[in-house]
Write a structure and sequence with these properties.
The chain is of the alpha+beta class and 359 residues long. The chain is 32% helix and 16% strand. The strands form 3 sheets. A 5-stranded mixed sheet has the order 3-4-2-1-5, with helices on one face.
Length: 359
């Protein structure tokens, strides 16, 4: 049996049309086994996705048959040799190998293809890896990223030199459609990636914990309106013992939060998971463990170590132990006295220890 295949466009999507040259009762059954195969009454043929995976499944299923590529509606099942390049339809992606560029995926309309040339790999690979839900396509040797506003905002901010080979749609899916009403200052410290925690969201979480001496459960329970930017404070609701309190929000944390809001645009929780809802404690622990391994610091350190460091470094600045007790949310001064050394300093003059780090 001969299988005739040809390029096809259905609902603005490129597909591979498939017909059998003679009647076979098991032909529809085999097509259904391919996965994703559909029948088109209009074109009177089956059709499958226009990509190498679908093509591979087709050739495997019909390995005992002769597969003939032809132009649609062609009366000649065998194509002349000179037409081969013209009628070839299995994706063969062409790009300038020296250009950082972005394309619409010819395989999936919901994805973009990002070409990172070899001479820029060392400089930009870590940045590309921070794009939300990016994945490597080993067949095409290209990065695949979601075709969303989130992806385009990230690229515009961190890969501004990239060349677009298409015009982005205006009605792209967002994932997070509401903008934060948090009033960030117009100018601030520019966020840059570093090898310990290169991911923007992950770095932001760690900085928030250290900025305010937060517990793990407190940082994932933060809402957007818990940030008091003008007062440089974090409002912690329902902390340990069901108590509310305010703690310090670093200038450097504010700067990275500004970048974070521009890219991720959280809706309700300050830090949201990939599918919505608040971030999980386990995810934060994994972030810290990975950063700890890369930085080769004390292997016994935990996320809670950042909270202890916050208190210790405030004491080294000469901050009164009573203020530290309030910032940490300790019910008893005895709990805070493990840090010792008391001096007097007004609450309004306190600065987060994060501001004293050279980062």
């Amino acid at each position: 049996m001969k299988i005739l295949v040809h390029p096809l466009e259905i609902n603005d999507q490129r597909r591979i049309g498939v017909k059998n040259s003679e009647f076979s009762s098991d032909f529809p059954t085999k097509m259904k086994r391919l996965g994703g195969a559909l029948w088109s009454p209009e074109h009177q043929c089956w059709h499958i996705a226009y990509n190498p995976d679908a093509w591979g499944r087709l050739t495997t299923e019909f390995s005992a048959c002769t597969i003939i590529k032809s132009l649609p509606h062609s009366s000649k099942p065998e194509k002349p040799q000179q037409e081969k390049a013209e009628t070839e339809f299995i994706p063969s992606f062409k790009r300038n190998m020296h250009e950082l560029a972005l394309f619409q995926s010819p395989e999936d309309p919901a994805m973009l293809w990002l070409h990172l040339p070899k001479h820029l790999t060392e400089k930009m690979l870590e940045t590309v890896k921070q794009i939300h839900r990016r994945k490597w396509n080993p067949d095409q040797k290209i990065w695949e990223i979601p075709y969303t506003q989130l992806s385009l905002r990230f690229i515009s901010k961190y890969l501004p030199q990239i060349k677009f080979h298409f015009t982005p749609k205006e009605d792209l899916p967002e994932g997070h459609v509401l903008e934060s009403k948090t009033n960030f200052p117009k100018q601030g410290i520019q966020y840059t990636f570093t090898p310990a925690i290169p991911n923007l969201k992950h770095r932001c979480i760690m900085m928030m914990i250290y900025s305010g001496g937060l517990r793990l459960g407190e940082v994932i329970n933060l809402h957007i309106n818990d940030l008091q930017i003008e007062q440089k404070r974090i409002f912690v609701r329902n902390g340990k013992g069901k108590k509310d309190r305010c703690t310090l929000l670093s200038d450097k944390a504010i700067a990275i939060l500004k970048d974070y809001f521009e890219i991720y645009m959280p809706v309700a929780w300050l830090f949201e998971g990939a599918t919505g809802g608040k971030y999980s404690e386990r995810s934060v622990q994994q972030i810290f463990t990975a950063a700890k391994t890369l930085s080769k610091i004390n292997p016994d350190a935990t996320v809670h170590t950042l909270r202890h460091s916050f208190a210790t470094h405030l004491l080294e600045q000469g901050v009164d132990l009573r203020y530290i007790q309030e910032l940490l949310g300790h019910a008893s001064s005895k709990t805070t006295e493990i840090y010792t050394h008391i001096t007097k300093k007004g609450m309004g003059t306190l600065k987060s220890p994060l501001d004293f780090l050279d980062i």
